[in-house]
Specification:
Blueprint: E1 13-17, H1 21-33, E2 37-41, H2 44-54, E3 58-62, H3 70-78, E4 88-92, H4 97-105, E5 110-113, H5 118-128
Parallel strand pairs: 1-2, 1-3, 3-4, 4-5
Helix pairs in contact: 2-3
């Protein structure tokens, strides 16, 4: 775990799961510029199918999504022995105590409120991806 705000995160595989095309595109642009390899998914089902193949180092997941929400998606990732140590960071437009608590219960490492800044996104990755 690195506290260095300029720690190199190039080559880190990041998955962004969000049903909003805008959020996916924003995150992808910011992360690609930082040298990350970005995988995007529109919902939990699509993401779960991709995780085994892509093996991301860190996963950002939106809470409010159709079919499978962020809590369910996070719980499924954390219940899988192979991926339970993969950091999952929740994304939400709500900044509620209840949502944060619920995120912790399903095993997420962190909670970011949308709209997030470039620095928040990058520091979340640096905090959870040991180099």
């Amino acid at each position: 775990m690195s506290d260095d705000p300029n720690a190199d995160i190039s080559g880190v595989k990041v998955m962004v799961i969000d049903d909003s095309k805008t959020i996916r595109r924003t995150a992808e642009n910011l992360l690609s510029k930082a040298g990350c390899e970005v995988i995007t998914a529109t919902d939990g089902f699509e993401a779960l199918a991709m995780i085994a193949d892509s093996r991301p180092d860190v996963i950002f997941v939106d809470i409010m999504m159709p079919r499978l929400d962020g809590y369910q998606t996070c719980a499924l990732i954390k219940n899988n022995d192979e991926f339970k140590n993969t950091p999952v960071i929740m994304l939400s437009s709500k900044d509620g105590l209840f949502d944060r608590a619920r995120g912790r219960i399903v095993g997420s490492e962190q909670y970011l409120t949308k709209p997030f800044t470039r620095d928040e996104l990058l520091s979340a990755i640096r905090d959870h991806v040991a180099r």
